[in-house]
Amino acid sequence: MNKVFAWIAFLFGVLYFILPLFGMAEFSLSMRRGVYSLDAYRVVLADPQFQATFTFSVVMALVTIAFGILLVVPTAYWVRLKLPGMRPWVEFVTLLPLVIPAIVVVFGYIRLYNTSSWLPMTGTATGTNILLMFGYSMLSLPYMYRAVDTGLRAIDVATLTEAAQSMGAGWGTILARVILPNVLPAVLSGAFLTLAIVIGEFTMAALLDRPAFGPYMQILGANKAYEPAALAVIAFAITWACMGLIQLSTRFSKHTRAMS
Amino acid sequence: MAFLDLSNLQKSFGQNHVVKDFSIAVEQGEFVSLLGPSGCGKTTVLRMVGGFETPSAGSITIDGRDVTGLRPNQRAIGMVFQSYALFPNLTVGQNVAFGLKVAGVGRAERDARVAEMLDLIGLADLGARYPFQLSGGQQQRVALARALAPRPKVLLLDEPLSALDAKIRVSLRTEIRAIQKRLGITTIFVTHDQEEALSMSDRVVVMSGGRADQIGTPFEIYNAPATRFVAGFVGTLNTFDAVVTDPATGSVTLNGLPLALDRPLDAAKGATIGVALRPEAARLGRDPSREVVLPATITAVQFMGAVVRITAEVAGRRFDLDTFNRVDTPPPAVGGEAEISVGARDFILLGD
Question: Name one Pfam family in it (chain B) (predicted).
Fold first, then answer.
Protein backbone atom coordinates (compact mmCIF):
# COMPACT_ATOMS: atom_id res chain seq x y z
CA MET A 1 0.00 0.00 0.00
CA ASN A 2 2.76 2.34 1.02
CA LYS A 3 4.57 1.58 -2.18
CA VAL A 4 1.57 2.52 -4.28
CA PHE A 5 1.35 5.90 -2.55
CA ALA A 6 5.04 6.43 -3.05
CA TRP A 7 4.70 5.74 -6.76
CA ILE A 8 1.70 8.06 -7.04
CA ALA A 9 3.62 10.84 -5.29
CA PHE A 10 6.61 10.22 -7.51
CA LEU A 11 4.51 10.28 -10.71
CA PHE A 12 2.79 13.47 -9.57
CA GLY A 13 6.18 15.05 -8.97
CA VAL A 14 7.42 13.96 -12.36
CA LEU A 15 4.37 15.38 -14.10
CA TYR A 16 4.57 18.59 -12.09
CA PHE A 17 8.16 19.23 -13.14
CA ILE A 18 8.36 17.56 -16.53
CA LEU A 19 5.13 18.73 -18.12
CA PRO A 20 5.96 22.46 -18.12
CA LEU A 21 9.43 21.68 -19.40
CA PHE A 22 8.00 19.45 -22.06
CA GLY A 23 5.49 22.13 -23.02
CA MET A 24 8.20 24.73 -23.25
CA ALA A 25 10.46 22.48 -25.33
CA GLU A 26 7.56 21.59 -27.59
CA PHE A 27 6.71 25.25 -28.04
CA SER A 28 10.32 26.16 -28.80
CA LEU A 29 10.26 23.68 -31.67
CA SER A 30 7.02 25.04 -33.16
CA MET A 31 8.24 28.22 -34.83
CA ARG A 32 7.46 26.86 -38.29
CA ARG A 33 3.75 26.27 -38.66
CA GLY A 34 2.63 22.62 -38.76
CA VAL A 35 6.05 20.93 -38.33
CA TYR A 36 8.69 20.74 -35.62
CA SER A 37 11.85 22.62 -36.48
CA LEU A 38 14.92 24.10 -34.83
CA ASP A 39 14.25 27.50 -36.36
CA ALA A 40 13.92 29.28 -33.02
CA TYR A 41 17.26 27.86 -31.89
CA ARG A 42 18.86 28.88 -35.15
CA VAL A 43 17.61 32.43 -34.73
CA VAL A 44 18.75 32.64 -31.12
CA LEU A 45 22.19 31.15 -31.75
CA ALA A 46 22.73 33.38 -34.78
CA ASP A 47 21.84 36.51 -32.82
CA PRO A 48 25.07 38.49 -32.23
CA GLN A 49 23.51 39.80 -29.03
CA PHE A 50 23.20 36.24 -27.75
CA GLN A 51 26.82 35.48 -28.53
CA ALA A 52 28.04 38.72 -26.97
CA THR A 53 26.02 38.47 -23.76
CA PHE A 54 26.69 34.79 -23.33
CA THR A 55 30.42 35.28 -23.78
CA PHE A 56 30.33 38.19 -21.34
CA SER A 57 28.61 36.09 -18.70
CA VAL A 58 30.92 33.12 -19.16
CA VAL A 59 33.99 35.34 -18.83
CA MET A 60 32.47 37.00 -15.76
CA ALA A 61 31.78 33.54 -14.31
CA LEU A 62 35.37 32.41 -14.87
CA VAL A 63 36.79 35.55 -13.26
CA THR A 64 34.35 35.14 -10.36
CA ILE A 65 35.40 31.51 -9.90
CA ALA A 66 39.08 32.43 -9.91
CA PHE A 67 38.50 35.18 -7.36
CA GLY A 68 36.28 32.89 -5.29
CA ILE A 69 38.94 30.17 -5.12
CA LEU A 70 41.62 32.69 -4.14
CA LEU A 71 39.36 34.08 -1.43
CA VAL A 72 37.64 30.99 -0.08
CA VAL A 73 40.31 28.25 -0.09
CA PRO A 74 42.89 30.14 2.02
CA THR A 75 40.14 31.49 4.30
CA ALA A 76 38.48 28.13 4.93
CA TYR A 77 41.93 26.55 5.40
CA TRP A 78 43.05 29.17 7.88
CA VAL A 79 39.81 29.00 9.84
CA ARG A 80 40.13 25.21 10.10
CA LEU A 81 43.80 25.33 11.03
CA LYS A 82 44.13 28.30 13.34
CA LEU A 83 40.74 29.76 14.19
CA PRO A 84 38.34 26.86 14.78
CA GLY A 85 36.48 29.07 17.25
CA MET A 86 35.68 31.51 14.45
CA ARG A 87 34.01 28.89 12.27
CA PRO A 88 30.39 29.57 13.31
CA TRP A 89 30.93 33.28 12.63
CA VAL A 90 32.53 32.74 9.24
CA GLU A 91 29.74 30.34 8.31
CA PHE A 92 27.20 32.93 9.36
CA VAL A 93 28.84 35.58 7.20
CA THR A 94 28.96 33.25 4.19
CA LEU A 95 25.23 32.57 4.62
CA LEU A 96 24.28 36.26 4.61
CA PRO A 97 23.92 36.42 0.79
CA LEU A 98 21.00 34.01 1.11
CA VAL A 99 19.03 36.40 3.32
CA ILE A 100 20.09 39.74 1.86
CA PRO A 101 18.41 40.27 -1.52
CA ALA A 102 20.74 40.98 -4.43
CA ILE A 103 18.85 44.19 -5.14
CA VAL A 104 19.71 45.57 -1.69
CA VAL A 105 23.37 44.78 -2.21
CA VAL A 106 23.49 46.31 -5.67
CA PHE A 107 21.79 49.50 -4.44
CA GLY A 108 24.37 49.61 -1.69
CA TYR A 109 27.13 49.27 -4.28
CA ILE A 110 25.68 52.04 -6.42
CA ARG A 111 25.32 54.39 -3.46
CA LEU A 112 28.82 53.65 -2.23
CA TYR A 113 30.74 53.53 -5.49
CA ASN A 114 28.89 55.97 -7.77
CA THR A 115 30.73 58.58 -9.84
CA SER A 116 30.55 61.22 -7.11
CA SER A 117 31.73 58.89 -4.33
CA TRP A 118 35.21 58.42 -2.83
CA LEU A 119 35.78 55.39 -5.07
CA PRO A 120 33.97 55.97 -8.39
CA MET A 121 33.91 52.34 -9.55
CA THR A 122 30.78 52.81 -11.71
CA GLY A 123 32.51 55.53 -13.69
CA THR A 124 34.10 53.07 -16.12
CA ALA A 125 32.98 49.82 -17.72
CA THR A 126 35.94 47.95 -16.21
CA GLY A 127 35.20 49.37 -12.78
CA THR A 128 31.57 48.32 -13.05
CA ASN A 129 32.59 44.86 -14.24
CA ILE A 130 34.84 44.51 -11.21
CA LEU A 131 31.97 45.62 -9.01
CA LEU A 132 29.71 43.05 -10.67
CA MET A 133 32.35 40.37 -10.15
CA PHE A 134 32.45 41.17 -6.44
CA GLY A 135 28.68 40.95 -6.34
CA TYR A 136 28.73 37.55 -8.07
CA SER A 137 31.43 36.31 -5.70
CA MET A 138 29.21 37.29 -2.80
CA LEU A 139 26.22 35.47 -4.29
CA SER A 140 28.27 32.31 -4.76
CA LEU A 141 29.89 32.51 -1.31
CA PRO A 142 27.43 30.19 0.52
CA TYR A 143 27.98 27.42 -2.02
CA MET A 144 31.69 27.93 -2.54
CA TYR A 145 32.54 28.11 1.16
CA ARG A 146 30.46 25.09 2.07
CA ALA A 147 31.88 23.01 -0.75
CA VAL A 148 35.48 23.84 0.16
CA ASP A 149 34.90 23.41 3.89
CA THR A 150 33.41 19.96 3.28
CA GLY A 151 36.41 19.09 1.13
CA LEU A 152 38.77 20.17 3.91
CA ARG A 153 36.90 18.03 6.42
CA ALA A 154 37.86 14.94 4.44
CA ILE A 155 41.60 15.48 4.95
CA ASP A 156 43.71 15.85 8.08
CA VAL A 157 44.51 19.52 7.50
CA ALA A 158 46.65 20.06 10.60
CA THR A 159 48.90 17.01 10.22
CA LEU A 160 49.36 17.42 6.46
CA THR A 161 50.33 21.04 7.09
CA GLU A 162 52.88 20.03 9.72
CA ALA A 163 54.27 17.30 7.48
CA ALA A 164 54.77 19.82 4.68
CA GLN A 165 56.28 22.37 7.07
CA SER A 166 58.75 19.86 8.45
CA MET A 167 59.98 19.37 4.88
CA GLY A 168 60.61 23.06 4.47
CA ALA A 169 57.40 24.19 2.76
CA GLY A 170 56.04 27.70 3.35
CA TRP A 171 52.36 28.74 3.33
CA GLY A 172 52.19 29.32 -0.42
CA THR A 173 53.61 25.88 -1.23
CA ILE A 174 51.34 24.21 1.31
CA LEU A 175 48.23 25.86 -0.15
CA ALA A 176 49.15 25.29 -3.78
CA ARG A 177 50.68 21.81 -3.60
CA VAL A 178 48.97 20.17 -0.63
CA ILE A 179 45.66 21.79 0.25
CA LEU A 180 44.26 22.90 -3.12
CA PRO A 181 44.89 19.60 -4.98
CA ASN A 182 43.21 17.68 -2.18
CA VAL A 183 40.08 19.83 -2.16
CA LEU A 184 39.96 20.16 -5.96
CA PRO A 185 36.80 18.05 -6.46
CA ALA A 186 35.06 20.21 -3.84
CA VAL A 187 36.41 23.40 -5.43
CA LEU A 188 35.19 22.26 -8.85
CA SER A 189 31.68 21.56 -7.60
CA GLY A 190 31.67 25.03 -6.01
CA ALA A 191 32.93 26.44 -9.31
CA PHE A 192 30.15 24.86 -11.38
CA LEU A 193 27.52 26.13 -8.96
CA THR A 194 29.05 29.58 -9.35
CA LEU A 195 28.94 29.22 -13.14
CA ALA A 196 25.23 28.31 -13.01
CA ILE A 197 24.47 31.26 -10.72
CA VAL A 198 26.39 33.80 -12.79
CA ILE A 199 24.94 32.68 -16.15
CA GLY A 200 21.38 33.16 -14.94
CA GLU A 201 21.83 36.21 -12.69
CA PHE A 202 19.60 39.13 -13.64
CA THR A 203 19.26 41.71 -10.85
CA MET A 204 22.85 42.84 -10.41
CA ALA A 205 23.75 42.81 -14.09
CA ALA A 206 20.60 44.75 -15.03
CA LEU A 207 20.95 47.39 -12.33
CA LEU A 208 24.64 47.88 -13.06
CA ASP A 209 23.70 48.01 -16.77
CA ARG A 210 26.12 45.32 -17.90
CA PRO A 211 25.48 43.37 -21.15
CA ALA A 212 25.04 40.01 -19.41
CA PHE A 213 23.08 36.92 -20.37
CA GLY A 214 20.35 37.39 -17.73
CA PRO A 215 19.16 40.79 -18.91
CA TYR A 216 19.36 39.57 -22.52
CA MET A 217 16.98 36.69 -21.70
CA GLN A 218 14.61 39.18 -20.11
CA ILE A 219 14.65 41.54 -23.10
CA LEU A 220 14.17 38.70 -25.54
CA GLY A 221 11.33 37.33 -23.45
CA ALA A 222 9.56 40.64 -23.53
CA ASN A 223 9.76 41.02 -27.32
CA LYS A 224 9.66 37.61 -29.00
CA ALA A 225 7.43 34.54 -28.90
CA TYR A 226 9.33 31.33 -29.77
CA GLU A 227 12.91 32.44 -29.16
CA PRO A 228 12.60 32.88 -25.37
CA ALA A 229 11.41 29.30 -25.07
CA ALA A 230 14.40 28.11 -27.09
CA LEU A 231 16.69 30.25 -24.93
CA ALA A 232 15.17 28.82 -21.76
CA VAL A 233 15.82 25.29 -23.02
CA ILE A 234 19.43 26.26 -23.76
CA ALA A 235 19.79 27.75 -20.29
CA PHE A 236 18.39 24.57 -18.77
CA ALA A 237 20.81 22.49 -20.79
CA ILE A 238 23.71 24.60 -19.49
CA THR A 239 22.58 24.20 -15.88
CA TRP A 240 22.20 20.47 -16.24
CA ALA A 241 25.54 20.21 -17.94
CA CYS A 242 27.03 21.99 -14.93
CA MET A 243 25.38 19.54 -12.56
CA GLY A 244 26.69 16.67 -14.64
CA LEU A 245 30.17 18.19 -14.46
CA ILE A 246 29.90 18.38 -10.66
CA GLN A 247 29.19 14.65 -10.62
CA LEU A 248 32.09 14.03 -12.97
CA SER A 249 34.50 16.18 -11.00
CA THR A 250 34.08 14.03 -7.88
CA ARG A 251 35.27 11.07 -9.93
CA PHE A 252 37.92 13.23 -11.52
CA SER A 253 40.83 12.56 -9.21
CA LYS A 254 42.63 9.25 -9.18
CA HIS A 255 43.72 9.36 -5.58
CA THR A 256 40.21 9.51 -4.11
CA ARG A 257 38.82 6.62 -6.09
CA ALA A 258 39.10 4.27 -3.15
CA MET A 259 36.99 6.51 -0.95
CA SER A 260 34.08 7.04 -3.31
CA MET B 1 78.06 21.33 23.04
CA ALA B 2 75.96 18.38 22.00
CA PHE B 3 74.49 18.09 18.51
CA LEU B 4 70.91 18.58 19.68
CA ASP B 5 70.67 20.52 22.88
CA LEU B 6 67.45 21.14 24.77
CA SER B 7 68.02 23.28 27.79
CA ASN B 8 65.51 24.17 30.48
CA LEU B 9 62.54 23.84 28.18
CA GLN B 10 59.19 24.84 29.61
CA LYS B 11 55.76 24.96 28.07
CA SER B 12 52.47 26.12 29.54
CA PHE B 13 49.06 26.16 27.94
CA GLY B 14 47.31 28.76 30.07
CA GLN B 15 47.53 27.58 33.68
CA ASN B 16 48.55 24.10 32.60
CA HIS B 17 52.31 23.48 32.87
CA VAL B 18 52.82 20.65 30.40
CA VAL B 19 56.61 20.67 30.32
CA LYS B 20 58.61 21.77 33.36
CA ASP B 21 62.32 22.36 33.06
CA PHE B 22 63.27 19.70 30.54
CA SER B 23 66.92 19.39 29.49
CA ILE B 24 68.81 16.83 27.46
CA ALA B 25 71.93 16.83 25.33
CA VAL B 26 71.68 14.44 22.40
CA GLU B 27 74.85 13.39 20.57
CA GLN B 28 75.04 13.20 16.80
CA GLY B 29 73.66 9.91 15.52
CA GLU B 30 72.04 9.04 18.82
CA PHE B 31 68.58 7.46 19.07
CA VAL B 32 66.76 8.85 22.10
CA SER B 33 63.27 7.78 23.16
CA LEU B 34 60.88 9.87 25.18
CA LEU B 35 58.83 7.36 27.15
CA GLY B 36 55.90 8.10 29.40
CA PRO B 37 52.16 7.84 29.91
CA SER B 38 49.82 10.09 27.95
CA GLY B 39 49.87 13.65 29.21
CA CYS B 40 53.46 13.46 30.49
CA GLY B 41 54.60 16.12 28.00
CA LYS B 42 56.66 13.89 25.69
CA THR B 43 54.82 14.87 22.54
CA THR B 44 54.99 18.55 23.50
CA VAL B 45 58.78 18.29 23.83
CA LEU B 46 58.98 16.69 20.38
CA ARG B 47 56.73 19.37 18.89
CA MET B 48 58.89 22.09 20.40
CA VAL B 49 61.95 20.55 18.73
CA GLY B 50 59.97 20.46 15.47
CA GLY B 51 58.90 24.07 15.88
CA PHE B 52 55.19 23.33 16.05
CA GLU B 53 55.02 24.66 19.61
CA THR B 54 56.94 27.62 20.96
CA PRO B 55 58.63 27.03 24.33
CA SER B 56 57.47 29.29 27.16
CA ALA B 57 61.09 29.31 28.30
CA GLY B 58 64.37 27.59 27.47
CA SER B 59 66.26 27.05 24.25
CA ILE B 60 66.82 24.47 21.52
CA THR B 61 70.07 24.21 19.60
CA ILE B 62 70.62 21.99 16.56
CA ASP B 63 74.19 21.59 15.32
CA GLY B 64 75.33 24.74 17.07
CA ARG B 65 72.49 26.89 15.73
CA ASP B 66 69.86 28.26 18.09
CA VAL B 67 66.55 27.31 16.44
CA THR B 68 64.24 28.28 19.30
CA GLY B 69 62.68 31.15 17.37
CA LEU B 70 62.71 29.53 13.92
CA ARG B 71 59.64 28.27 12.07
CA PRO B 72 59.33 24.52 11.40
CA ASN B 73 60.24 24.93 7.74
CA GLN B 74 63.55 26.61 8.63
CA ARG B 75 64.83 23.93 11.00
CA ALA B 76 65.97 21.11 8.70
CA ILE B 77 64.01 18.44 10.56
CA GLY B 78 62.23 15.35 9.32
CA MET B 79 59.07 14.25 11.03
CA VAL B 80 57.04 11.05 10.95
CA PHE B 81 53.50 11.11 12.35
CA GLN B 82 51.31 8.47 13.93
CA SER B 83 48.73 8.97 11.18
CA TYR B 84 51.38 8.68 8.37
CA ALA B 85 50.23 12.05 6.92
CA LEU B 86 51.19 11.16 3.37
CA PHE B 87 49.86 13.60 0.78
CA PRO B 88 46.90 11.68 -0.68
CA ASN B 89 47.06 13.49 -4.03
CA LEU B 90 50.68 12.54 -4.70
CA THR B 91 52.17 9.18 -5.63
CA VAL B 92 54.68 7.49 -3.36
CA GLY B 93 57.53 8.84 -5.49
CA GLN B 94 56.11 12.37 -5.48
CA ASN B 95 55.61 12.21 -1.72
CA VAL B 96 59.25 11.31 -1.20
CA ALA B 97 60.30 14.01 -3.68
CA PHE B 98 58.24 16.71 -1.93
CA GLY B 99 60.93 18.02 0.40
CA LEU B 100 63.55 17.93 -2.36
CA LYS B 101 61.29 19.89 -4.69
CA VAL B 102 60.68 22.50 -1.99
CA ALA B 103 64.43 22.77 -1.52
CA GLY B 104 64.86 23.37 -5.26
CA VAL B 105 66.82 20.20 -5.98
CA GLY B 106 67.15 19.55 -9.72
CA ARG B 107 65.15 16.88 -11.52
CA ALA B 108 67.92 14.33 -12.07
CA GLU B 109 69.28 14.55 -8.55
CA ARG B 110 65.76 14.39 -7.15
CA ASP B 111 64.88 11.25 -9.07
CA ALA B 112 68.10 9.60 -7.96
CA ARG B 113 67.48 10.45 -4.33
CA VAL B 114 63.86 9.22 -4.48
CA ALA B 115 65.03 5.91 -5.97
CA GLU B 116 67.69 5.64 -3.28
CA MET B 117 65.14 6.30 -0.51
CA LEU B 118 62.58 3.85 -1.89
CA ASP B 119 65.33 1.29 -2.11
CA LEU B 120 66.27 1.97 1.49
CA ILE B 121 62.75 1.17 2.71
CA GLY B 122 62.41 -1.80 0.37
CA LEU B 123 59.59 -0.38 -1.74
CA ALA B 124 61.56 0.37 -4.89
CA ASP B 125 58.81 -0.82 -7.23
CA LEU B 126 55.91 1.02 -5.58
CA GLY B 127 56.91 4.56 -6.55
CA ALA B 128 53.94 5.05 -8.87
CA ARG B 129 51.30 3.93 -6.36
CA TYR B 130 49.04 6.29 -4.44
CA PRO B 131 49.05 6.16 -0.64
CA PHE B 132 45.56 4.65 -0.47
CA GLN B 133 46.87 1.64 -2.39
CA LEU B 134 49.39 0.80 0.35
CA SER B 135 49.06 -0.99 3.68
CA GLY B 136 49.59 0.91 6.92
CA GLY B 137 53.10 -0.45 7.37
CA GLN B 138 54.05 0.47 3.81
CA GLN B 139 52.59 3.96 4.23
CA GLN B 140 54.62 4.52 7.38
CA ARG B 141 57.80 3.38 5.63
CA VAL B 142 57.07 5.84 2.81
CA ALA B 143 56.54 8.54 5.43
CA LEU B 144 59.97 7.68 6.84
CA ALA B 145 61.58 7.85 3.39
CA ARG B 146 59.83 11.17 2.74
CA ALA B 147 61.12 12.61 6.01
CA LEU B 148 64.68 11.41 5.33
CA ALA B 149 64.91 12.41 1.65
CA PRO B 150 65.90 16.09 2.19
CA ARG B 151 68.72 14.96 4.55
CA PRO B 152 67.37 16.53 7.75
CA LYS B 153 69.67 17.09 10.70
CA VAL B 154 67.24 15.60 13.18
CA LEU B 155 64.57 12.97 12.69
CA LEU B 156 61.46 13.23 14.88
CA LEU B 157 59.22 10.20 15.25
CA ASP B 158 55.86 10.85 16.91
CA GLU B 159 54.49 7.44 17.95
CA PRO B 160 55.02 6.16 14.41
CA LEU B 161 54.13 2.57 15.25
CA SER B 162 51.01 3.10 17.35
CA ALA B 163 48.53 2.88 14.49
CA LEU B 164 49.93 -0.41 13.17
CA ASP B 165 49.02 -3.95 14.14
CA ALA B 166 51.26 -5.88 16.51
CA LYS B 167 53.25 -7.94 14.03
CA ILE B 168 54.10 -5.03 11.70
CA ARG B 169 54.94 -2.93 14.74
CA VAL B 170 57.67 -5.32 15.83
CA SER B 171 59.19 -5.78 12.36
CA LEU B 172 59.03 -2.07 11.56
CA ARG B 173 60.81 -1.05 14.75
CA THR B 174 63.75 -3.23 13.82
CA GLU B 175 63.72 -1.71 10.36
CA ILE B 176 63.52 1.88 11.58
CA ARG B 177 66.42 1.29 13.95
CA ALA B 178 68.51 -0.32 11.19
CA ILE B 179 67.88 2.60 8.81
CA GLN B 180 68.62 5.10 11.57
CA LYS B 181 71.94 3.41 12.35
CA ARG B 182 72.88 3.14 8.70
CA LEU B 183 72.28 6.85 8.06
CA GLY B 184 73.61 7.85 11.45
CA ILE B 185 70.82 10.36 11.88
CA THR B 186 70.10 11.93 15.25
CA THR B 187 66.62 10.75 16.22
CA ILE B 188 64.02 11.56 18.85
CA PHE B 189 61.33 8.94 19.23
CA VAL B 190 58.16 9.46 21.24
CA THR B 191 56.31 6.42 22.53
CA HIS B 192 54.20 5.15 25.39
CA ASP B 193 55.32 1.58 24.68
CA GLN B 194 58.21 0.62 26.98
CA GLU B 195 59.18 -2.37 24.86
CA GLU B 196 59.64 -0.10 21.82
CA ALA B 197 61.66 2.38 23.83
CA LEU B 198 63.90 -0.24 25.42
CA SER B 199 64.51 -2.25 22.26
CA MET B 200 65.23 0.63 19.87
CA SER B 201 67.04 3.31 21.80
CA ASP B 202 70.57 4.30 22.69
CA ARG B 203 69.10 6.22 25.58
CA VAL B 204 65.63 6.41 27.07
CA VAL B 205 64.08 9.43 28.80
CA VAL B 206 61.29 8.39 31.15
CA MET B 207 58.94 11.33 31.62
CA SER B 208 56.18 12.02 34.08
CA GLY B 209 54.34 15.21 34.88
CA GLY B 210 56.34 17.27 32.39
CA ARG B 211 59.75 16.30 33.79
CA ALA B 212 62.43 13.82 32.86
CA ASP B 213 62.43 11.34 35.75
CA GLN B 214 65.43 9.48 34.44
CA ILE B 215 67.69 9.59 31.41
CA GLY B 216 69.78 6.50 30.76
CA THR B 217 70.51 3.49 28.58
CA PRO B 218 67.71 0.91 28.37
CA PHE B 219 69.81 -1.35 30.65
CA GLU B 220 70.14 1.37 33.30
CA ILE B 221 66.50 2.34 33.10
CA TYR B 222 65.33 -1.22 33.55
CA ASN B 223 67.82 -2.38 36.15
CA ALA B 224 68.44 0.79 38.12
CA PRO B 225 65.28 2.88 38.00
CA ALA B 226 65.93 6.21 39.66
CA THR B 227 62.45 6.86 40.96
CA ARG B 228 59.43 4.88 42.01
CA PHE B 229 57.64 6.14 38.95
CA VAL B 230 60.29 4.81 36.57
CA ALA B 231 60.40 1.51 38.43
CA GLY B 232 56.64 1.14 38.23
CA PHE B 233 56.22 2.34 34.64
CA VAL B 234 58.97 0.28 33.02
CA GLY B 235 58.35 -3.43 33.37
CA THR B 236 56.60 -5.31 36.16
CA LEU B 237 57.90 -4.96 39.68
CA ASN B 238 57.32 -6.53 43.09
CA THR B 239 57.80 -3.79 45.68
CA PHE B 240 58.36 -4.07 49.43
CA ASP B 241 58.95 -1.71 52.30
CA ALA B 242 62.07 -2.71 54.19
CA VAL B 243 63.36 -1.40 57.51
CA VAL B 244 67.09 -0.68 57.65
CA THR B 245 68.94 -2.45 60.46
CA ASP B 246 72.54 -1.75 59.42
CA PRO B 247 73.21 0.77 56.65
CA ALA B 248 76.91 -0.14 56.34
CA THR B 249 76.37 -3.79 55.39
CA GLY B 250 72.98 -3.29 53.79
CA SER B 251 71.04 -5.36 56.28
CA VAL B 252 67.30 -4.82 56.37
CA THR B 253 64.24 -6.60 57.65
CA LEU B 254 61.34 -7.34 55.40
CA ASN B 255 58.18 -7.84 57.43
CA GLY B 256 60.37 -9.20 60.24
CA LEU B 257 62.44 -11.35 57.91
CA PRO B 258 66.12 -10.36 57.96
CA LEU B 259 67.99 -10.07 54.71
CA ALA B 260 71.25 -8.66 53.41
CA LEU B 261 71.18 -6.47 50.31
CA ASP B 262 74.96 -6.76 49.98
CA ARG B 263 75.65 -3.06 49.49
CA PRO B 264 75.89 0.04 51.69
CA LEU B 265 72.64 1.92 52.05
CA ASP B 266 72.15 5.66 52.01
CA ALA B 267 69.63 5.60 54.86
CA ALA B 268 69.67 5.80 58.65
CA LYS B 269 69.15 2.79 60.89
CA GLY B 270 65.44 2.25 61.48
CA ALA B 271 64.41 4.09 58.29
CA THR B 272 61.97 2.53 55.84
CA ILE B 273 63.18 2.15 52.25
CA GLY B 274 61.53 0.82 49.12
CA VAL B 275 63.04 -2.32 47.59
CA ALA B 276 61.82 -4.15 44.51
CA LEU B 277 62.34 -7.31 42.50
CA ARG B 278 61.69 -8.04 38.82
CA PRO B 279 59.52 -11.12 38.18
CA GLU B 280 62.32 -12.75 36.19
CA ALA B 281 64.92 -12.23 38.97
CA ALA B 282 63.25 -14.63 41.40
CA ARG B 283 63.38 -18.38 41.16
CA LEU B 284 61.00 -20.95 42.55
CA GLY B 285 62.64 -23.40 44.97
CA ARG B 286 65.92 -23.27 46.86
CA ASP B 287 68.90 -22.26 44.75
CA PRO B 288 72.32 -22.55 46.44
CA SER B 289 73.83 -19.85 44.22
CA ARG B 290 71.36 -17.25 45.55
CA GLU B 291 71.74 -15.73 48.98
CA VAL B 292 68.15 -14.88 49.87
CA VAL B 293 65.38 -17.41 50.37
CA LEU B 294 61.85 -16.09 50.90
CA PRO B 295 59.01 -18.27 52.17
CA ALA B 296 55.93 -17.91 49.97
CA THR B 297 52.38 -19.13 49.47
CA ILE B 298 51.32 -19.75 45.87
CA THR B 299 48.07 -17.89 45.12
CA ALA B 300 47.74 -18.24 41.36
CA VAL B 301 49.46 -19.92 38.43
CA GLN B 302 49.14 -18.74 34.87
CA PHE B 303 50.53 -21.11 32.28
CA MET B 304 51.30 -19.09 29.15
CA GLY B 305 53.32 -21.62 27.21
CA ALA B 306 56.95 -20.60 27.15
CA VAL B 307 56.57 -18.64 30.37
CA VAL B 308 54.76 -19.64 33.55
CA ARG B 309 53.67 -16.63 35.61
CA ILE B 310 53.29 -17.51 39.26
CA THR B 311 51.64 -15.21 41.77
CA ALA B 312 52.56 -15.76 45.39
CA GLU B 313 52.25 -14.03 48.72
CA VAL B 314 55.58 -13.03 50.19
CA ALA B 315 55.95 -11.06 53.45
CA GLY B 316 52.28 -10.13 53.25
CA ARG B 317 52.65 -8.73 49.72
CA ARG B 318 51.68 -9.95 46.27
CA PHE B 319 54.72 -11.28 44.43
CA ASP B 320 54.84 -12.06 40.71
CA LEU B 321 57.50 -14.30 39.35
CA ASP B 322 58.14 -15.68 35.88
CA THR B 323 59.70 -19.06 35.18
CA PHE B 324 60.39 -20.71 31.88
CA ASN B 325 58.35 -23.77 31.09
CA ARG B 326 60.22 -27.10 31.45
CA VAL B 327 58.89 -30.47 30.45
CA ASP B 328 59.97 -32.16 33.70
CA THR B 329 58.72 -29.42 36.05
CA PRO B 330 54.94 -29.10 36.27
CA PRO B 331 53.65 -25.78 37.64
CA PRO B 332 53.23 -25.65 41.44
CA ALA B 333 49.83 -26.21 43.02
CA VAL B 334 47.80 -23.18 44.06
CA GLY B 335 47.65 -22.79 47.85
CA GLY B 336 50.89 -24.70 48.42
CA GLU B 337 53.88 -23.43 50.38
CA ALA B 338 57.05 -22.72 48.42
CA GLU B 339 60.43 -21.06 48.67
CA ILE B 340 61.62 -18.34 46.39
CA SER B 341 65.35 -17.74 45.92
CA VAL B 342 66.74 -14.37 45.00
CA GLY B 343 70.23 -12.97 44.57
CA ALA B 344 71.00 -10.18 47.02
CA ARG B 345 72.17 -7.96 44.16
CA ASP B 346 68.86 -8.46 42.31
CA PHE B 347 67.06 -6.20 44.76
CA ILE B 348 66.40 -2.78 43.25
CA LEU B 349 66.46 0.15 45.63
CA LEU B 350 63.70 2.61 44.97
CA GLY B 351 64.31 6.31 45.35
CA ASP B 352 61.50 8.79 45.56
Answer: TOBE_2
